[in-house]
C-alpha cells in the first residue's frame, strides 16, 4: 500500500528534509486561507462524514448488534471453546495468512532482488509481466489456478500422462491450493515494496559496507535486510490482511473452515446472527491490522540521499549462468502467463467436452457468440456494467471531495475522515456485504426508510463501499503532487476561489481521479466476494454468472465471461497507465491488486 | 601506511565504449596526501573507485606496496573510504556506524569501544555515539564518515569529494580538520575533488586529470607556477595564454615577439623543442601582470574593456593589440574606467611556456 492515503504525521525530528514546499504551503492553505471562512470546511465535510458513517460505520455496528441480538453473545463463545468450528476457522484463517506471508515474502523479495540487481537474458520480459497474475479478477484468478494445478488441472494431468502414473502428479488441493493461489496473486505486495526499497537504496551505503571489509553475506545481513525491513513489514501486513479477507480461493479449493467461508455458509443457511458474529470478528481483526499498518507507516523509512551514481545491475556473464537465467526466465514467463492462457484456452472449449483430458478436446467460438447474442447470457454483463457505473459515479463525487478535504482543509476530525475511508479498504468484501445486509434489511435513515436487501441498490452500495478508497487514494496522491502554491498563483492573478480550484487544482488532479475511477469501475466489473452474498436473479453480475456456470460444469462459458473481464482489465490498466503518465504509476499498480 | 601505485590503468565502460580512464600511471607515496583534481567527467572518481575495488580496471595493474590488488574484492582491500554523500548506515547509531568496520575485523568489546570513542574524539564528536544519523547536521555526518573510515586504520584513506555537500565556510574548516587528522595518522590518502582551491590548500601533490588522462602531477606550487599545458594553466587558477611567434630559443627559455613587437623572454620546460618560426603558448597569471601609466618605460599600451571589483583585488580586462588579457590588480591607478589607455608590463620572470 502506498503511503498516499495514509497521512500520519511524521515525528517532528525525523528527516526534516521530508518537509517539501508543497507540504509547507498545504499547511498554510489548510489554516483557512482558501476561503476565508473558518466554517467552510465543516459545510463540506459534514455530508461526507454522514456518508461514511451511514454506509460504512453504522452497518458495522448493525452487524454487531445482529450478532448479539438473539442470545447476548453466546455466538462468540464458539471462538473460545476448543474443537468448535468457529475456533478452528479463526485458527485456519490465521495460519493460512501466516503461511501466505512467508511464501509471498520469499517469492516477492527474491523476485525483486533478481530483477533489480541482476541483468540477464529475459529480465525485461519478466519485469513487464510480473504483475499479470495479480491483476486478474479474484474469481478468475482462483479458477485459473484450479484449472491449472488442482487434481483435475492441466499440469498434474499432463505429468500423470508423461510419467504414466495412476494419480495426477503434483496436484494441489485444500489448503495447499489456497496457498498456491495466494502466493501467485499476493507476492506483488512484497515484490513492489522490496523493489521500490531497493531502487531507493543508496548504492554507496552498500559500497561503504564492502569498503569496511564486510563480505557479501554480511552486507546482506547487516545492511540490506535491515534497510528493507520497513518495506517487508508493510508487505507482510498487506498480505496478511488480504489473505484473511480471501474468499474465492477457499471456496474453489473447498476449504470450508475459514472465517470468510463460514460467513458465506451461515448466511446461505439463513443463520444471519452467526454469520454476523463471524463478520464482526473478522472485521475487528482486519481493523486491528489496519491500525497496525498505519502505526507502522508513520514511522520513518530509509530513503536515498544520494543523487549521483545509480545502482548498477550485475550482468550475469558466466555462460552456464546465462543459460540457467534464460531457462529460468522462460519458465517464469510460462508460469506468469499460464493463468491467462488457460482462461483463454478454456474460453474456446465446448461446454462439457472437457472431462479427463489434459486440455479440452473440442474448440468452438460459440461461448462468445452466445454471450453476445443471447439476451439472457448478456444480462450479467449489463448488470455488472450498470452497477459498477452507478457505484463509480458516487465514488468519484465522494472520493474526490474527501481527498480534497483531508489533503487541503484543516478541521477537527480530519484524521477520522481519513480512517473512515481506510476502514472501507480494510474490511473484507464478505464483511462489507454482511454489514450492508444487517443494516438495510429494514429501512433506516440512510436508505430513506427503504429496505435495500434483495433490491438493485444494495449492489452499487456494496461496490461503492469496497472501491471508494481507490479514487480517494489516487486523488489524494495527485493532490499531494500538486503544489497549493499553483492555486495561490491563480488567485494572485485575479481568479476567484472556485475558478482557481476548477481551472488549476481540478485540472491537475484530473488524471489521477480518472485513473482511480477506471480502477474502481474495473474492480466493480470483476467483483465477486460481496456480490455473491447479496445478488438476486435480476442483479446477477458477471463473476456470479461465472461461478454459477462453473457449478453447472459449463467451463467454456465461465471462461468466456472471464476472458471479457480480463480484456477489460488490461485495457483499463493500459489507459490508466497512460493517464498517470508514469508519475505515480506505482500507486496505480499497487492499487490494482488488493481486492481479494 | 603504504605506497599506492597505478600502472597503466584504463577503464572502459561497456555502455560508452570510450575509455573513462586512459592508461593512468601514478605513484602515491607512503603517507602522502594526494589529490586527483579535474572537472566532472575527467575520470578522477572512476580512478578512485578502481583503487577502492568498486570497479576493476579494463587493463593495467594496481599495487598497494608490493600487493597486486587489481582484481581483489573491495572488502579485502583494507581501504577506508569517505563517500561524497557520506553513505552512513541510517539504521545504525553513530557509534555503530563507526564500529562497523571494526566488527568485520573481529575487533570487539572494550577494545572496539575504546577505538570508537577515540575516533569520535578525534573528529570532535565525543558523546555523540548513541545519536541517530538523521539527528546530525551535514558537517557532523561528514565527520562520522571520516571517523568510520579512519577507525579501522586503513592502508589508504580514500576521499570522494567529501566536502562538496557542505557550505562554503564549513568546507574551509573541515578541510583543515581532514588534513590535521590525516597528518596525525599519516595515512596514505587519495582525495578526489573538482575544487582547485581545496586541492591546492590540502595536498602534498596533485594529479590534474582531464579526459581520462593525467595532465600533470606535482606539488601545488609547482603546478601553479609551472603548468605543463594550456589545460592545467587555465584550470588551476586563471591564466592568460598568449599565442606568440618564436624569435629565438635556449634550452630553458624561448624568446618570443610580444604584441607590440618587443621581444620577451619566457621560461620554458627542458626539451620544449620550440625553434624559430614556431608559435609558443606563453602563460602569465593575471596577478603577475602589472598595470602602469600608458607611457611608463617597458610598458605595452592596452585599452581597458571592463573592471570588476572583487574586494581583495580588481579584475581588469584589457585589450592588448587585439588580444584580450586579464589583470588582477591589488592597487589600481585611480579613476580607471572602460576605454582608458593603460600601460601593461609582462614581467619575464612570470612568463612560462606551456604545451598546447
From TrEMBL, chain B:
Keyword Transport: yes
Stretch forming the signal peptide: none
GO cellular component, one term: ATP-binding cassette (ABC) transporter complex
One Pfam family hit: ABC_tran
GO molecular function terms listed in the Swiss-Prot or TrEMBL record: ABC-type transporter activity; ATP binding; ATP hydrolysis activity
ABC transporter domain sequence ranges: 4-236
PROSITE patterns given in the database record: ABC_TRANSPORTER_1, ABC_TRANSPORTER_2
InterPro entries documented for this protein: AAA+_ATPase, ABC_SmlMolc_Importer, ABC_transporter-like_ATP-bd, ABC_transporter-like_CS, Mo/tungstate-bd_C_term_dom, NA-bd_OB-fold, P-loop_NTPase, Transp-assoc_OB_typ2
Keywords: ATP-binding, Nucleotide-binding, Transport
Transmembrane keyword on record: no
Matches recorded under PANTHER family: SPERMIDINE/PUTRESCINE IMPORT ATP-BINDING PROTEIN POTA, SPERMIDINE_PUTRESCINE IMPORT ATP-BINDING PROTEIN POTA
Protein's UniProt name: ABC transporter ATP-binding protein
Organism: Jiangella rhizosphaerae
Amino acid at each position: 500500500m502506498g503511503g498516499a492515503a495514509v497521512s500520519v504525521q511524521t515525528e517532528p525530528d525525523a528527516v526534516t528534509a521530508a518537509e517539501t514546499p508543497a507540504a509547507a504551503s498545504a499547511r498554510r492553505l489548510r489554516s483557512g486561507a482558501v476561503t476565508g471562512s473558518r466554517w467552510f470546511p465543516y459545510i463540506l465535510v459534514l455530508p461526507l462524514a454522514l456518508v461514511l458513517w451511514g454506509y460504512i460505520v453504522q452497518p458495522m455496528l448493525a452487524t454487531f448488534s445482529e450478532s448479539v441480538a438473539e442470545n447476548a453473545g453466546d455466538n462468540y463463545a464458539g471462538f473460545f471453546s476448543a474443537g468448535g468450528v468457529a475456533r478452528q476457522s479463526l485458527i485456519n484463517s490465521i495460519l493460512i495468512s501466516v503461511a501466505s506471508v512467508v511464501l509471498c515474502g520469499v517469492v516477492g523479495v527474491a523476485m525483486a532482488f533478481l530483477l533489480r540487481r541482476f541483468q540477464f537474458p529475459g529480465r525485461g520480459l519478466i519485469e513487464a509481466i510480473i504483475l499479470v497474475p495479480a491483476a486478474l479478477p479474484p474469481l478468475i484468478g482462483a479458477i485459473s489456478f484450479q484449472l491449472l494445478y488442482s487434481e483435475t488441472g492441466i499440469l498434474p494431468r499432463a505429468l500423470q500422462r508423461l510419467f504414466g502414473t495412476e494419480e495426477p502428479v503434483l496436484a494441489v488441493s485444500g489448503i495447499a491450493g489456497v496457498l498456491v493461489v495466494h502466493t501467485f496473486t499476493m507476492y506483488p505486495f512484497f515484490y513492489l515494496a522490496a523493489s521500490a526499497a531497493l531502487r531507493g537504496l543508496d548504492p554507496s551505503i552498500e559500497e561503504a559496507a564492502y569498503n569496511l571489509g564486510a563480505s557479501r553475506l554480511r552486507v546482506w545481513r547487516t545492511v540490506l535486510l535491515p534497510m528493507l525491513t520497513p518495506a517487508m513489514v508493510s508487505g507482510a501486513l498487506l498480505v496478511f490482511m488480504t489473505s484473511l479477507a480471501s474468499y474465492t480461493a477457499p471456496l474453489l479449493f473447498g476449504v470450508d473452515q475459514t472465517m470468510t467461508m463460514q460467513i458465506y455458509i451461515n448466511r446461505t443457511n439463513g443463520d444471519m446472527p452467526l454469520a454476523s458474529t463471524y463478520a464482526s470478528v473478522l472485521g475487528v481483526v482486519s481493523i486491528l491490522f489496519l491500525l497496525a499498518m498505519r502505526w507502522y507507516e508513520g514511522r520513518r523509512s530509509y530513503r536515498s540521499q544520494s543523487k549521483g551514481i545509480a545502482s548498477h545491475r550485475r550482468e550475469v556473464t558466466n555462460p552456464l549462468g546465462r543459460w540457467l537465467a534464460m531457462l529460468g526466465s522462460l519458465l517464469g514467463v510460462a508460469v506468469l502467463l499460464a493463468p491467462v492462457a488457460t482462461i483463454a484456452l478454456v474460453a474456446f472449449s465446448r461446454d462439457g467436452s472437457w472431462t479427463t483430458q489434459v486440455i479440452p478436446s473440442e474448440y468452438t467460438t460459440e461461448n462468445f457468440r452466445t454471450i453476445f447474442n443471447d439476451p439472457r447470457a448478456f444480462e450479467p454483463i449489463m448488470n455488472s456494467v450498470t452497477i459498477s457505473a452507478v457505484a463509480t459515479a458516487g465514488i468519484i463525487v465522494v472520493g474526490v471531495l474527501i481527498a480534497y478535504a483531508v489533503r487541503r482543509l484543516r478541521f477537527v476530525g480530519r484524521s477520522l475522515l481519513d480512517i473512515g475511508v481506510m476502514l472501507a479498504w480494510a474490511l473484507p468484501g464478505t464483511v462489507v456485504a454482511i454489514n450492508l445486509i444487517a443494516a438495510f434489511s429494514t429501512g433506516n435513515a440512510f436508505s430513506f426508510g427503504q429496505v435495500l436487501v434483495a433490491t438493485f441498490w444494495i449492489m452499487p452500495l456494496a461496490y461503492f463501499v469496497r472501491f471508494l478508497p481507490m479514487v480517494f487514494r489516487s486523488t489524494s496522491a495527485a493532490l499531494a503532487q500538486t503544489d497549493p502554491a499553483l492555486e495561490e498563483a491563480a488567485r494572485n492573478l485575479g481568479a476567484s476561489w472556485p475558478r482557481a480550484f476548477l481551472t488549476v487544482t481540478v485540472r491537475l488532479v484530473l488524471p489521477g481521479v480518472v485513473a482511480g475511477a477506471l480502477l474502481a469501475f474495473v474492480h466493480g466489473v470483476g467483483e465477486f466476494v460481496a456480490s455473491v452474498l447479496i445478488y438476486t436473479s435480476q442483479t446477477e453480475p458477471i463473476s456470479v454468472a461465472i461461478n454459477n456456470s462453473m457449478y453447472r460444469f459449463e467451463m467454456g462459458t465461465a471462461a468466456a465471461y472471464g476472458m471479457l473481464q480480463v480484456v477489460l482489465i488490461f485495457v483499463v490498466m493500459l489507459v490508466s497507465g497512460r493517464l498517470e503518465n508514469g508519475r505515480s504509476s506505482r500507486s496505480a499498480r499497487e492499487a490494482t491488486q488488493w481486492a481479494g | 601506511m603504504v605506497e599506492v601505485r597505478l600502472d597503466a590503468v584504463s577503464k572502459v565502460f561497456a555502455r560508452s565504449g570510450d575509455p573513462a580512464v586512459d592508461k593512468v600511471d601514478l605513484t602515491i607515496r607512503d603517507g602522502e596526501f594526494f589529490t586527483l583534481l579535474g572537472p566532472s567527467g575527467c575520470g578522477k572518481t572512476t580512478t578512485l573507485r578502481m583503487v577502492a575495488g568498486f570497479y576493476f580496471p579494463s587493463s593495467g595493474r594496481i599495487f598497494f606496496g608490493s600487493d597486486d590488488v587489481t582484481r581483489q574484492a573491495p572488502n579485502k582491500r583494507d581501504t577506508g573510504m569517505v563517500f561524497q554523500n557520506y553513505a552512513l548506515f541510517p539504521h545504525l547509531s553513530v557509534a555503530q556506524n563507526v564500529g562497523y568496520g571494526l566488527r568485520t575485523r573481529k575487533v570487539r568489546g572494550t577494545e572496539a569501544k575504546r577505538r570508537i570513542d577515540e575516533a569520535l574524539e578525534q573528529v570532535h564528536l565525543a558523546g555523540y555515539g548513541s545519536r541517530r544519523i538523521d539527528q546530525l547536521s551535514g558537517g557532523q555526518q561528514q565527520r562520522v564518515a571520516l571517523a568510520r573510515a579512519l577507525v579501522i586504520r586503513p592502508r589508504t584513506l580514500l576521499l570522494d569529494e567529501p566536502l562538496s555537500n557542505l557550505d562554503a565556510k564549513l568546507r574551509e574548516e573541515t578541510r583543515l580538520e581532514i588534513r590535521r587528522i590525516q597528518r596525525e595518522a599519516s595515512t596514505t590518502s587519495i582525495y578526489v575533488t573538482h575544487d582547485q582551491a581545496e586541492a591546492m590548500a590540502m595536498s602534498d601533490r596533485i594529479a590534474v586529470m582531464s579526459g581520462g588522462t593525467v595532465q600533470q602531477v606535482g606539488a601545488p606550487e609547482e603546478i601553479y607556477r609551472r603548468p605543463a599545458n594550456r589545460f592545467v594553466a587555465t584550470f588551476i587558477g586563471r591564466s592568460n595564454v598568449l599565442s606568440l611567434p618564436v624569435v629565438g630559443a635556449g634550452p630553458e627559455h624561448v624568446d618570443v615577439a610580444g604584441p607590440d613587437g618587443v621581444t620577451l623572454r619566457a621560461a620554458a620546460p627542458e626539451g620544449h623543442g620550440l625553434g624559430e618560426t614556431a608559435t609558443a603558448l606563453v602563460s602569465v597569471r593575471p596577478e603577475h601582470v602589472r598595470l602602469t601609466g600608458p607611457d611608463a618605460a617597458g610598458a605595452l599600451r592596452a585599452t581597458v574593456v571592463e573592471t570588476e571589483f572583487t574586494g581583495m583585488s580588481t579584475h581588469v580586462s584589457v585589450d592588448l593589440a587585439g588580444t584580450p588579457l586579464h589583470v588582477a590588480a591589488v592597487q589600481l591607478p585611480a579613476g580607471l574606467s572602460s576605454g582608458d589607455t593603460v600601460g601593461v608590463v609582462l614581467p619575464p620572470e612570470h612568463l612560462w611556456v606551456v604545451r598546447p
